[in-house]
Amino acid sequence: MKVAVLDIKGKETGRKVELSDDVFGIEPNNHAVYLDVKQYLAHQRQGTHKSKERAEIAGSTRKIKKQKGTGTARAGSIKSPIFKGGGRIFGPRPKDYTQKLNKNLKRLARKSALSIKSKEQAIFVVEDFNFEAPKTKEFKEVLKSLGLENKKSLFVLGDSNNNVYLSSRNLKRSEVVINSELSTYKILNAGSIVLMEGALEGIESNLTK
């Protein structure tokens, strides 16, 4: 599958690149996509949630009233969960939410996500560019030229580029990653994928091992 290479002004350069059908043209595996997205979202959870239970509350253990004759229910320590300020019953405890997936399944999920975007014609290939200094204004001009100014977009670089990354950091709808950071969730979460020309080789190499 051949795709035209654009410049940062959104115009065709006259060159075309071949996108591998093994990466951008497979039949999507929806279950693999589901598992990979589920793992990504699970890994965003810190798992540090904790509430104090009865044994962890600071307070007296004295029985607060006699067992019988009060006309009310029996009550022991003030730390009982039925009282305000008492411990919590079955409260949250720290938990590790990480999930394990094998590498082949994760590759299949990413290839499926890229193939979905390819079928939607939501993948652009742009020649490599750089800014002299980090400037959000210049990055917004690139978005405007590509017709992505008010749309969710994901820019994939071949190598780390601090000026481009910092220029995009203040924009909520745009994200910049290098090819090794590409994930199924990020691909599907973006409306359009902008691939730098220098990122293609790394993407295809990573996903066809």
Automatic annotation (TrEMBL):
InterPro entries: Ribosomal_uL4 (IPR002136), Ribosomal_uL4-like (IPR013005), Ribosomal_uL4_dom_sf (IPR023574)
Keywords, alphabetical: Ribonucleoprotein, Ribosomal protein, RNA-binding, rRNA-binding
Residue ranges of the region described as Disordered: 45-77
A Gene Ontology cellular-component term: ribosome
Tagged with keyword Transmembrane helix: no
One Pfam family linked to the record: Ribosomal_L4
Membership in a protein family: Belongs to the universal ribosomal protein uL4 family.
The protein's role, per its UniProt record: One of the primary rRNA binding proteins, this protein initially binds near the 5'-end of the 23S rRNA. It is important during the early stages of 50S assembly. It makes multiple contacts with different domains of the 23S rRNA in the assembled 50S subunit and ribosome.
Quaternary structure note: Part of the 50S ribosomal subunit.
Protein name as it appears in the record: Large ribosomal subunit protein uL4
Organism the protein comes from: Sediminicola luteus
High-level lineage: Bacteria, Pseudomonadati, Bacteroidota, Flavobacteriia, Flavobacteriales
